[in-house]
Specification:
Helix content: 55-70%
Oligomer: single chain
Shape: elongated
Strand order of the largest sheet: 6-7-8-3-9-10
Number of helices: 20
Number of strands: 10
Structural class: alpha/beta
CATH architecture of the largest domain: Up-down Bundle
Radius of gyration: 35 Å
CATH class of the largest domain: Mainly Alpha
CATH superfamily of the largest domain: ABC transporter type 1, transmembrane domain
Order of helices and strands: HHHHHHHHHHHHEEEHEEHEHHHHEHEEEH
């Protein structure tokens, strides 16, 4: 069956369309369940109008057993539709879990994108709605006209009373949605911003504590927190106001329906049994509408989550799973690469053109702020604000499947990020543990002997973000992780910033070994000792290439430029 245009508009809607058969089955079970809700009404009519007048216990027993069987069937229908929706919710999560993870991760890398936790919270919200009371209200609402028709059958006055209250409740639902949507979304955004601000600052709790910055942080957080509280109070006030009005209407409906029935009984137009049954019937007819009013908050939250998740999946489409590349050799070509950042007027990299043959070592030098780290991120394809071409083996690096390409890339960022787990798990990139590869990478980073001295060796937990290790140990583990599996392209952004002499020697040996293995290495450093294994030097200045070429040639140019500048400086008056 071809999906309607609405369900073809996005991956999220198309996934929901995949469960159309489950929804149709739930709809049929809802029909059975709602039809059986007429059982109490029919039972009351028979008991009041037949059993009491005939005083037949056998008739009462038969009616009671039939009604009990209908109740059992109704309970089974309710359980079955709930079970179907729960399973559909689990399948829905399985269908989209990996997709949402990849899209949210790509979005987070784009700096300023949605947090992965927010994306999964949206997915959880949609899944819970699919299995909660709100969805049952939607399935039950279409059968309300049948109950109203039965009320008209009992007496037209009762039918019109029910229709009048149904209109009132639908109006409440509509105005409740109009009045609650904006405050609920504003409250959600304000709460998320306050929590994100606090979590981001707590990552540097040691600095905050040591330098007495906690009070200043608390002041700024309190401003955001109080704003979020005000928004939340406004949202809850609107919802509670609508709930109170809905409660008044519900109780008024019960009393006025009973009063209308009593008037009809007094006039002889209705039996006492029909009066009681009509009151229950109208309550059943308006029940789904009342549930809709009570579930508006869930509808609003789910709708907002659906739109956010739909936009996320549209902005970061799934890459072709069938796309398979041969392992890269590591040849890197940059053509007119310009890198920017949000809120920055001048670009960080300004028209970089670069050709690096596979199997060579390129040392990148330059003062702080010249764009070295941004160049490293652009080369490995994780800097989103790049124009121009970054080619790996002649293909745009953005077109490679990142999961497939990952094992062929090694990267040590300037700010080391390790993850909770053991040393072996971090070195192996949390993949399948292959001891020989882990030990080989640790030896290459000069880390093996140090690890063996630890009580648990390679199984030693490192704590959250490697907090149980020193800065030098974290950097060497990050280096071992980058070298794991002998990747074709390795980018090292100041990997010796926290290393001692032994670490420096291990790094120099690792770079030399990579060179011998024919790997492509970019080494960003401030230390001249690290240049011994370099084939070529790249000097960056203010986002531009100041010099690039074979190492000895570039060093000779720099020495000549320094010597030429020395007499000029000496000739200046003191």
């Amino acid at each position: 069956m071809t999906a309607p245009s609405f369900f073809r508009r996005s991956d999220l809607a198309a996934t929901l369309w995949m469960f159309r058969r489950q929804f149709m089955l739930v709809g049929m079970l809802s029909f059975v369940s709602n039809m059986l809700l007429l059982s109490p009404t029919l039972y009351m009519l028979q008991v009041y109008d037949r059993v009491l007048s005939s005083q037949s216990e056998l008739t009462l027993l038969a009616l009671s057993l039939i009604t009990l069987a209908m109740f059992i069937l109704m309970a089974v229908s309710d359980w079955a539709r709930s079970r179907i929706l729960v399973r559909a919710g689990v399948q829905f999560d399985r269908q989209l879990g990996t997709r949402v993870f990849n899209a949210s991760f790509d979005s987070y890398l784009s700096q300023g994108g949605a947090s992965p936790s927010r994306a999964f919270a949206d997915l959880l919200q949609i899944r819970q709605f699919l299995t909660g009371n709100g969805i049952f209200a939607l399935f039950d609402a279409p059968w309300a006209p049948i109950f109203l028709a039965v009320a008209f059958f009992l007496h037209p006055v009762l039918g019109w009373v029910a229709v009048a209250f149904a209109c009132v409740q639908m109006a409440l639902a509509w105005f409740g949605h109009r009045g609650a949507a904006a405050p609920a979304e504003a409250a959600s955004q304000a709460t998320t911003q306050a929590n994100t601000y606090l979590q981001g600052k707590l990552r540097n709790a040691e600095v905050l504590q040591a330098m007495g910055m906690i009070g200043n942080l608390m002041t700024r957080w309190l401003e955001r927190h109080r704003h979020a509280l005000a928004r939340t109070a406004q949202s809850h006030g609107s919802q509670h106001r609508m709930s109170a009005i809905s409660k008044f209407v519900r109780y008024a409906q019960q009393s006025l329906t009973l009063a209308a029935g009593a008037i009809l009984v007094i006039r002889g137009e209705l039996s006492p049994g029909a009066m009681i049954a009509a009151n229950v019937l109208v309550l059943r007819a308006l029940g789904p509408i009342d549930q809709l009013v009570g579930a508006w908050r869930g509808f609003i939250t789910t709708h907002a989550a659906f739109l956010r998740l739909e936009q996320l999946l549209a902005d970061y489409p799934e890459r072709d799973r069938a796309l398979s590349r041969v392992p890269p050799t590591g040849e890197i070509v940059l053509r007119n690469v310009v890198a920017t950042a949000p809120g920055r007027q001048q670009p960080i990299l300004k028209g970089i053109d670069l050709d690096v043959r596979a199997g060579t070592v390129t040392a990148v030098l330059g003062p702080s702020g010249s764009g070295k780290s941004t160049l490293a991120r652009a080369i490995v394809g994780i800097w989103p604000y790049v124009s121009g071409e970054v080619l790996l083996d002649g293909r745009p690096i953005s077109g490679w499947n990142r999961i497939e390409l990952g094992p062929h890339l090694g990267y040590v960022p300037q700010d080391i990020e390790l993850f909770e787990g053991t040393i072996a798990e971090n070195i192996s990139r949390f993949g399948k543990l292959e001891s020989d590869k882990v030990i080989d990478a640790a030896r290459a980073a000069g880390l093996h002997d140090m690890i063996l001295r630890l009580p648990q060796g390679y199984d030693t937990p490192i704590g959250e973000a490697g907090g149980l290790l020193s800065a030098g140990q974290r950097q060497r583990i990050a280096l071992a992780r980058a070298l794991y599996g002998h990747p074709a392209l390795i980018v090292l952004d100041e990997p010796n910033a926290n290393l001692d002499d032994a670490g420096e020697a291990a790094l120099a040996g690792a770079v030399q070994r990579l060179k011998e293995l024919g790997k492509t290495v970019f080494l960003i450093t401030h230390r001249p000792a690290a240049l011994a294994a370099a084939d070529q030097l790249l000097i960056l200045q203010d986002g531009r290439i100041q010099a690039y070429g074979p190492r000895d040639q570039v060093l000779a140019q720099l020495r000549a430029a320094a010597q030429a500048a020395t007499p000029t400086l000496a000739a200046q008056p003191a």
